[in-house]
């Protein structure tokens, strides 16, 4: 397949991820040609992604594609694409709330949205799910200001806050219709508050939930259990065969250690996230508020009010959310969700993809219970 020899591109950090941001008009319209181009831009398949922009990890091998929206409730459309590191694969089967943090600023930078005086709000339709988000960020003097005092765990230093609000979505909070399911002999809670997630007590899998991501990834018995749970959960959650997809995410729960609501270890699907994805955290937070869920007796939400602090390997992430409990025939629903992220423009210019004739042979990698675990949200 062939595509343009050079492409306008902006590399941005969005939350705790990093990705290449493109205007849809700058990429081929044919998805197959587009995906082939993006593999060559990112340097996949190659465990080091040495010949492209990718950072040799699912969290740094991401793409955001942006265009003006024809939806009257949105200003721009955002398509998230996960580029696998070790496989020649690009998928749109999930969303990414971290890359989402850069979409509003990118839309202003590219002239898709006119900046307001001191703060601009951009209404974003997330094409992967059809759901909406509103991102607000400072634009003094009509220019995006990336400097500020907001801190997020997993990112050094400070930056301007990007406040992202998620209106109530159309997807049911409980995809299986039940607060608890028994999958592969393990009690779990399956939730979807923007990201399909399976909540699992860490102790039920023979781990503490405080291990390092590296130690958990090297636990092959755990990898096998997680794969079994994920494949069965995918079917129960209406996602079909998830063998080669990155959803649902799996979040192990343990009691908090640093004043939060819960400690988490999240798998994407077999790589253990060094923090936690925004939308995954939103689903975890909503799941903790469900009476009778597996978080009961593990999480401490008594003092959290509508702000739920999710602890993870590199710190914490605060999610503001509330859940209307089930009443009669009415299932529990999320009233709304918001989170503070940061983003930064790293470079803006032209990227030159690897030649289509120079497709490498993927280096062999040791399997960890299934596929290689392309990225998190």
UniProtKB/TrEMBL annotation:
It is an enzyme of class 5 (isomerase). Gene3D superfamilies: Diaminopimelate Epimerase, Chain A, domain 1. Residues 353-377 are annotated as: Disordered. Belongs to the PrpF family. It comes from the Bacteria. The lineage of its organism: Bacteria, Bacillati, Actinomycetota, Actinomycetes, Kitasatosporales. Signal peptide: none annotated. One of its GO terms (molecular function) is isomerase activity. Keywords: Isomerase. Pfam families: PrpF (PF04303). The keyword Metal-binding does not apply. It comes from Streptomyces hokutonensis. Its EC number is 5.3.2.8. This is 4-oxalomesaconate tautomerase. PANTHER family: ACONITATE ISOMERASE-RELATED, ISOMERASE YBHH-RELATED. InterPro entries: OMA_tautomer-like, PrpF-like.
């Amino acid at each position: 397949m062939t595509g343009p020899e050079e492409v306008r591109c902006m590399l941005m950090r969005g939350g705790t991820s990093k990705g290449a941001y493109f205007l849809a008009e700058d990429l081929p319209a044919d998805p197959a040609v587009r995906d082939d181009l993006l593999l060559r831009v990112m340097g996949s398949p190659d465990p080091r992604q040495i010949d492209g922009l990718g950072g040799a990890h699912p969290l740094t091998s991401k793409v955001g594609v942006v265009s003006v929206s024809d939806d009257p409730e949105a200003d721009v459309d955002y398509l998230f694409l996960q580029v696998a590191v070790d496989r020649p694969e690009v998928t749109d089967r999930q969303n990414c709330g971290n890359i989402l943090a850069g979409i509003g600023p990118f839309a202003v930078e590219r002239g898709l949205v006119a900046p307001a005086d001191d703060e601009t709000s951009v209404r974003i339709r997330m094409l992967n799910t059809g759901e909406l988000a509103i991102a607000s960020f400072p634009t003094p003097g009509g220019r995006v200001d990336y400097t500020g005092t907001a801190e997020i765990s997993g990112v050094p230093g400070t930056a301007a806050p990007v406040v992202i609000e998620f209106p109530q979505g159309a997807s049911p909070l409980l995809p299986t219709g039940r607060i608890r399911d028994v999958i592969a002999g393990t009690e779990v809670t399956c939730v979807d508050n923007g990201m399909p997630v399976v909540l699992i007590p860490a102790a039920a899998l023979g781990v503490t939930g405080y291990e390092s991501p590296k130690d958990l990834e090297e636990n092959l018995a755990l990898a096998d259990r997680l794969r079994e749970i994920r494949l069965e959960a995918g079917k129960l959650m209406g996602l079909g065969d998830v063998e080669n997809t990155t959803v649902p995410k799996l979040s192990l729960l343990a009691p908090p250690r640093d004043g939060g609501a819960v400690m988490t270890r999240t798998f994407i699907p077999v790589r253990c996230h060094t923090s936690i994805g925004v939308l995954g955290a939103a689903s975890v937070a909503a799941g903790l508020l469900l009476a009778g869920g597996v978080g009961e007796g593990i999480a401490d939400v008594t003092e959290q009010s509508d702000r739920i602090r999710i602890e993870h390997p590199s710190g914490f992430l605060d999610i503001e959310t509330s859940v209307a409990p089930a009443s009669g025939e009415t299932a529990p629903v999320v009233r709304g969700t918001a989170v503070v992220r940061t983003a930064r423009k790293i470079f803006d210019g032209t990227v030159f993809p690897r030649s289509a004739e120079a497709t490498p042979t993927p280096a062999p990698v040791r399997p960890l219970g299934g596929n290689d675990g392309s990225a998190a949200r």
